[in-house]
Amino acid sequence: MALKVAVIGANGRVGQLLCKLLKTSDDFEPLAVVRTAEQKEYFERELGIEASLTSIEESSVDEIGAALRSQDAVVWTAGAGGKGVERIFTVDLDGAMKAIEACQKCKIDRFVMVSAVNANNREMFWNTKLRNYYIAKRTADAILRGSGLQYTILQPGSLLSESGTGQLCPLGALEDKKSAWYAIQREDVAQFIKLALEHPERTIHKTIPLANGDMSMRDFLATL
């Protein structure tokens, strides 16, 4: 039976890539959670993917729960996208909190969070222009860790838009890249989300930094 996966933030670039990837597999049945009627029409008519018109920012926990109720897993790929401090807190923080609370109420155990590089390292982000963004991400990650859900937190580096490489940087080598705020192709993030959903035994209750490197994804997964 196909795993039903709700993708919150499906209209973003990682979200779209993930929905299309899941659609190609008989093992998954994606639900695109979007915030405009135009986005819903695009997913359903152009991509043949079921969509739910649910604004994570404006909807209540119960309304979000109603949209997610039949799902087996939730993937969070949403973000304010540089639209100001207020939306950082209403989307990246409170929106994520509401999604987590909705999963708890609906007994949806599996939750994959796409966070950000070094979100757990206050010293790395405190004196940067992205401090408010990272405070929101760090807090949302901490709430997810304490939620009781079967979580996976992915912390990709700077997101790139070229073709995926299928290669990741070994965890032990990431320390050398921290000063450069390492990078990864969006296609590779989407591919690894799919792998995480396929292999909960390797990824549940883990926070996983992601950067492109020279190790195959399968080999990387085996090290977790």
Describe the model.
With 224 residues, this protein is of the alpha/beta class. The protein has one domain (3-222): 3-Layer(aba) Sandwich (Rossmann fold). The chain contains nine helices and eleven strands. The chain has helices spanning 13-23, 37-46, 61-68, 85-106, 122-125, 131-145, 186-198, 200-203, 217-222, and strands spanning 3-8, 28-34, 50-53, 73-76, 110-114, 150-156, 158-160, 167-168, 183-185, 206-210, 215-216. The strands form three sheets. Strands 3-2-1-4-5-6-10 form a seven-stranded parallel sheet, with helices on both faces. Strands 7-9 form a two-stranded parallel ribbon. The chain has a two-stranded antiparallel sheet with strand order 8-11. Helix 4 runs parallel beside helix 6. The longest helix has 22 residues, at 85-106.
- CATH topology-level fold name: Rossmann fold
Q: Helix segment count?
A: 9
CATH superfamily: NAD(P)-binding Rossmann-like Domain
Specify the biggest β-sheet: 7 strands, parallel
Task: Please give the alpha-carbon distance between the first and last residues.
Answer: 26 Å
CATH structural architecture: 3-Layer(aba) Sandwich
Tally of DSSP β-strands: 11
Shape: globular
InterPro entries: NAD(P)-bd_dom, NAD(P)-bd_dom_sf
Protein name: LADA_0H20054g1_1
Pfam families: NAD_binding_10
Domain NAD(P)-binding: 9-200
